[in-house]
Amino acid sequence: MSRVLWGVGVAGLVGLSVASLLIGPAGLTPLQAVSALIRGDALAETLVMREIRLPRAILAVLVGAALGLGGAAMQGYLRNPLAEPGLIGVSGSAALGAVLALQTGLAAAHVLALPFAALAGAVLAVLIILALAGPRGGSITLILAGIAVSALAGALTSLVLNLSPNPFAASEIVFWMMGSLQDRSMIHVWISAPFIGLGALILLSQGRNFDALTLGEDAAASMGVHLGRLRLALVLGVASMVGAATAVAGAIGFVGLVVPHILRPLVGARPSALLPASALGGAVLVLMADIAVRVILPTRDLKLGVLTAIVGAPLFLHLIYKTRLQGQL
Amino acid sequence: MTELVLSDFAVSRGPCDVLRDINLSVGPRECVGLLGPNGAGKTTLLRGALGLMPHRGGSSLSALPLAMRAQTVAWLPQAREIAWPMSVESVVALGRLPHLGHGAHPTPDDQNAIDWALSRLGLDSFRQRIATQLSGGEQARVLIARALAQATPILMVDEPAAGLDPAHQLTLMQTLQSEARAGRMVIASMHDLGLAARFCTRLIVLSHGQIVADGRPERVLTRELLADVFQIRAHISYSDDGPVVQPVGVIW
After folding, report:
1. What is the pLDDT of residues A229-266, one digit of tens each?
2. How far away is chain B from the Cα of A12, in angstroms, using its nearest Cα?
3. Domain B4-250 adopts which CATH fold?
4. pLDDT digit string (tens) for A11-42?
5. Domain carrying residue A17
6. What pTM value is reported for the model?
7. C-beta atoms of B97 and A226 within 8 A
8. What value of ipTM does the predicted structure carry?
9. In sequence order, what are the residues at sequence separation of 6 or more whose Cβ sits closer than 8 angstroms to the Cβ of residue A147?
10. Which residues in chain A have their CB less than 8 angstroms from residue B81's CB?
11. Which of A:76-105 have CB within 8 Å of B?
12. A221 touching B, CB under 8 A?
């Protein structure tokens, strides 16, 4: 991606972050908001800014970057534009962990219980996938293992809903699964940031290996790519990022699928260039969506994951149609 | 480093041996054509020798560390794959990956190798075209250029001429021949006996997983061998341009 586009992207990220801090139901003027955030003199306003809006904006950036980068890495590894970060079953398993925490009441007892239960679900999924796919298996075994784990996690989540003692517990679970950044605190930032950062480092370091994979697994292996190590890095990197993102925000669909797809032509389709670009694009998209849910229906608590899917799916259909017209699919 | 030695080399798939008792040694300046009917084990021999699949016995290439092997031998698989709509130039530039340090930017040397490979395959005017939108034969040339750009002493190519028009088949074989004359070592699996006879310095014929002939083209491509191994009759003659082998009929 050219410098100009990067400049536009970064400027957009900064602008949207500021907008995310300034928009909310507390009705602060921009001046009040900035002063409360930086100087911390007015008590209630400072609380709103530092404990509600700031973590929300930071989480939108972290979660969006995780989903965008995770999607670009999955697509690069599988050489398939339809791949998305949830494909290895991590988001489904993380959601199952969170649902169990909600169901058992642990989530209500302690604020850390839900995200840690979700992370435990993600770790479990990674262990199962690596055991199933074996040390030498190709990308197909990995995907099949991921689909199986996803299906199992989905079935168990349904079972929990099925057996939930009362409709309130069930609706709490359903609403959580829609994905949202509302009412998160700095604790959620501290929990997710290390995992997302670590996963990002792992995936970004694999850029040239994804480039080599453009020519197929055989050619890549002959060019010095250690396929087994690359797959391990992919699973650990994606699981770490997407598991942490799901743990703090729930399931947010289509970002990991659509963002790499939109940005691919802008970076000359090179997988290594697409990785950081998709991290930036994902952050921008989730920030935009999270502002939109506050602006469109401020009183109805529109869920972030619902909005990304409603906007993302038609956008994706349009992209498929356009790609087909150009004869590239 | 320009050497391939296989000793007591064998590859099995499940209980049966796909290749067995392979002993051969290939050196610089050789342009080797690897011949044999479908399923004889040509691709398996090349992939096994590279260490891309498990094998028994010794291979001087698969013994190398991955990074060094990537600087020693360029491999063009039979499956012609370009996953993303990248420009021709950036696909060819992928051949330089083994020479770049981590995060290092391409040097003028890298650019020279890319330019040279592009012009060798007649792709100068294609540089900015999207590789996935080209025809199959053009994509094949792009991928051959990628392997050339890797600038390794050994070049291993699996059916490089498949899908090319006659002019480009001849140009490709001339390129491989001149690379060998310049000191590289070339091993190409092929099906076109005529091209193999005309451009290769040495032919190795595989049948049912074993080497059945190995030597200069005119000694290897005899009527008996063509009948035994390929079940064909062929017109064989010698012209000013070299040996001419033209299959004319099938013997079942």
Report:
1. 999 999 999 999 999 999 999 989 889 999 999 999 99
2. 27
3. Rossmann fold (3.40.50)
4. 999 999 999 999 887 778 888 888 888 877 76
5. 3-325
6. 0.91
7. no
8. 0.91
9. A87, A89
10. 79, 214-216, 219
11. 79
12. yes
